[in-house]
Amino acid sequence: MPVPVLLAGRTVRLEPLAPHHTEALALAGAEDRTTYAFTPVPHGLQASHEYIDRALADQAAGRSLPFAVVRATDGRVVGSTRFLELDYWQGPLVWPAVPGVPYGDPATSIPDAAEIGNTWLSPGAQGTGINTEAKLLMLRHAFETWGVRRISLRADARNARSRAAMERLGLTCEGVRRAHSRGLDGAVRSTAFYSVLDEEWPAVRSVIEQRISGRRPRRSRRPAGSLIPA
After folding, report:
1. What pLDDT, in 10s, does the model give residues 46-91?
2. Distance CA 69, CA 60 (A)
3. 81, 83, 112: which is closest to 99 by C-alpha?
4. For the purposes of burial, counting CB atoms within 10 Å of the CB of 230, is it exposed (0-12), middle (13-18) or buried (19 or more)?
5. What's the confidence (pLDDT) of residue 219?
6. First CA to last CA across the chain, in angstroms?
7. How confident is the prediction for the chain on average, in pLDDT?
């Protein structure tokens, strides 16, 4: 499994999620909850304790790498995010494939593909640029430290806010899988899938860095199916 790491930027720190974040995570989740319709967000101290326990169990099993999202200006926890769906393509070819199982020593393995997900921010942190820089930190670590071939993200197809945020970053929309799974509200949901490949990363990084600096991203030609921020 990948080694837990702290990722620090100008406006945000991504700290390895740990039990000492429980109370701060509960406070973040206690703000106006009307924006949490599509994402599981712990509500209360006990729920935050269980949320962290489950995340750390997944981490111990090599299934994810969770973070607390910390605002740099005041050190306040404002949400959570994680790498998940870690996949490994090294070693002898085995068929049928066994996803999520590294070849060699699991303690030193790094993934060839992963997903960024389970992301939520408190309302006070939404729209402040924290999410944009957090995505930059995670994508940069995945492509430039791990050397992954692909990073994917997904959203409930009804979640216009999350989909618009991914599109503004220049991610490629792969389409919508209809009636894909059960949503947080219990309804059968469709899921929108997005991705970035290693050869696309320099262009996407440029878009994100321009957004963070306040400059308008330049338009460029992209393959059919790509989504470019306005």
Report:
1. 999 999 999 999 999 889 999 999 999 999 999 999 999 999 988 8
2. 20
3. 112
4. exposed
5. 52
6. 38
7. 89
Identify the residue whose tokens are 């699991």: 106
pLDDT computed for residue 204 by the predictor: 96
CA distance linking residue 57 with residue 160, whole number of Å: 31
Evaluate whether 64 touches 83 at the Cβ level (below 8 Å).
yes
Please choose, from the candidates 163, 137, 166, 117, the residue with its C-alpha nearest in 3D space to the C-alpha of residue 15. 137
Question: Six-digit token pair at 155?
Answer: 């959203």
Q: Are 112 and 7 in contact (CB under 8 A)?
A: no
Write down the pLDDT at residue 101: 80
DSSP H/E element including 51: helix 45-60
Beta carbons of 87 and 111 less than 8 angstroms apart: yes
pLDDT above 70 (res 218): no
Q: What is the β-pairing status of strands 113-121 and 150-156?
A: parallel
Counted residue by residue, the chain has a size of 230
* Residue that the structure tokens 């326990």 belong to: 53
Q: pLDDT value at position 217?
A: 56
Alpha-carbon distances, residue 94 vs 62, 89, 107 (angstroms): 19, 10, 21
Q: How far is CA 220 from CA 132, 163, 205, in A?
A: 20, 20, 13
Calpha distance 84→118 (Å, rounded): 9
Q: What is the pTM of this model?
A: 0.89
